[in-house]
Amino acid sequence: MKFEKPASWINPPKKNDVPHRIVIEGLIGVGKTFFSKDLAKELEYHLMEEPVAENKLLPLFYSDPKRFAFAMQVKMLTERLSMERAGTYMVEAGVVPGVVYDRSLGGDAVFMELNTVLGNIAPEEAEVYLRLFGQMKIESPYPDLIIFLEASLDTVRWRIKGRGRPFEKSILDEGNHYLEGLQEGYDRFLEAMGYHTCVVRLDWEKFRSASSVWSEIKEKYEASQESRCQKMLLEWNDHA
After folding, report:
1. 3-state secondary structure 182-194
2. 167-188 confidence digits (pLDDT tens)
3. Which terminus of the chain has fewer Cβ atoms in its 10 Å neighbourhood, N or C?
4. Domain that holds residue 164
5. CATH of the domain at 54
6. Does residue 13 form part of some domain?
7. Which of 142, 5, 122 minimizes the C-alpha distance to 65?
C-alpha cells in the first residue's frame, strides 16, 4: 500500500491554534490505551477507545490469520469510520472541545499492508479493502495531530507479555517478525502523514503522565505549523 503525498496543503492551521482531533498510534502493547485515556482526561476531550474487548474476531485472527485477516481488517475499517465520523461531528458541532482517537483508519491500513505482504490477505482481497478504504476516507478528514508512541521492540514485547492476553502469545514466538513489519510500515505511514498533518513521535520507553508531556507535544505542534506552510509553498513552486 502506498501513502501518497498531496500536491499542497489546503488549510494549514492558524497561528496559536490547538489540535482538536488527536490520534494516538503505536505498536501493539506500547501503551496507547493508557496514554489515550490520560490525555483525554488531561485535555477534557472525548475519548474514542479502540474496541478490543468487544472484538470477537481478534483472537480468531491470531489463531488463524490466513482465514480471518481480511474479515478482521474490514471489521476494524467499518468501526473506525464510525468512530472518526462521530468524533468529527461532535467537534464541529461544538458538543465536545476535542476528541482523542485510540488508533485511526490510516493506522489500521498499516496492519492490512503487512498482512498482505505476509500472505494472510490475498491480493484480490487487498484490492477490495483499498476500494473500501478510499471511499470511507472521503468521509474522514485528516486529524489535526498524530502522536506516535515509540519504544524498542524489546520493551514492546515485554509489555505484551506482561498484560497477558492469551491470543497475543504468538507475537512473542521466536522467528515471528510481525512487530518488525509493523514498525517498518508505521515508519512509511508517518513519513507520508507528515505531508497531511502534524506528526509527533514521542519517546515511550517509560510511561509518563499526559500532563508532563503535553507541553512538549504542544511545542512540537506549534513549531510544525511553520514547516508545514513551507511545504505548501515548496509544492506550489514545484508546480508553478
Report:
1. HHHHHHHHHHHHC
2. 888 888 887 899 999 999 999 9
3. C
4. 21-238
5. 3.40.50.300
6. no
7. 122
C-alpha cell at 96: 465536545
Q: Please, are residues 87 and 48 in contact by the beta-carbon 8 Å criterion?
A: yes
C-alpha 37/C-alpha 49 separation (Å) is 8
Indicate whether 11 belongs to any domain: no
| Threshold 0.90, pTM exceeds | no
**CA gap 20, 17 in Å, rounded:** 9
Query: How many domains would you assign to the chain?
Result: 1
In a domain, 214, yes or no: yes
Q: What is the pLDDT of residues 85-121, one digit of tens each?
A: 999 999 989 999 999 999 998 999 999 999 999 999 9
Q: Is residue 9 in some structural domain?
A: no
Q: Which residues pair with 148 in a beta bridge?
A: 25, 201
